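Data availability (excerpt). The following record was deposited with the supplementary files.
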Amino acid sequence: MALSIVLMPISAALVSTFVLAQAVLASTPLAVRITSDVADCPSSVKVQSALRQALGDGERSASGWVLSYGRDPSAPAAERDASVLMELVDPAGRRLAVRRIPVSPGYCGAVATAMAAVAERSLRTLGWTRGEPLPEAGRRTNAAESSTPTAPKRLPRLVVGVGPSIGTSPRTGTNLQFEARVRVTGPLCLRLGGGLFAGSESQNVGSGKASVSSRYFTAAPLAALALDSLELAGGPILLLSFDHGSTVGLTQGSSGDREVLAAGFGIGIAVRLSPRWRISLGLEGLRAALGANYFVDLNGVKTVVLPPSPWEGIASANLEFVAWP
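Predicted structure:
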């Protein structure tokens, strides 16, 4: 009985010491900030614990290194819960490592450990060693530069952009162009756009004048390729313009509408400024495929006016925003 009375205070002291040590450890800042939309496997607590064992403690900053993980939106719905996609992002917003890690119930701790190991190996390629502050963005040794593997890049799901465009035909002319691009699957994307302002053209006809105003819209299935800080895209493009023509000063004033369809090919390059903002340049060449002519009665003769341009090109420069993800 006396032995039990002696052991009880010792056990209570050991438990108190363990709880206090855990509380102190939890309050110690971690060098890498963790963000996740996964609540169960692995939990952020398990990932934090694994990172602490792999990297140690350090100064935590909201603008510093970030490890984010979640379900891969590009994976098929039936397989989305079978893995997590993790990214290690440096203070400048560049992805140092991107990995897809399988997840199995009951092995959440192993998944967290694997994520911590990827983070540690990636940081070591920059010349970092345990016990030192994490490297600043862009700082890497020459050996690290030659041995660091290029992380796979993902195409964004939705990108919207606006910017000036210059067309060689009056119907496109100098305009302000709006575009939205959706990634359908893999590298295949669908881009929709058009000019925000109407183009215009006029022609003197006898003692009068014929004029036409045009608005155009484009649709393009593109194949895109994401590189380190660039994205390349190219593919066929369709341009549909809606024209309204009218005449003044002629014996019989008239007006009419027509649609002109042009087809061609376009290429583009986008330069990433930040995780959300990009600058893109595009060049398109098109040939008129379908379209009616405008006619006026000039001294009893049916005369064609303002025919659609058989060939045209469009150059554009857009400021783009990556809306998702």
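Summary of structural features: Residues 24 and 30 are 12 Å apart (CA to CA).
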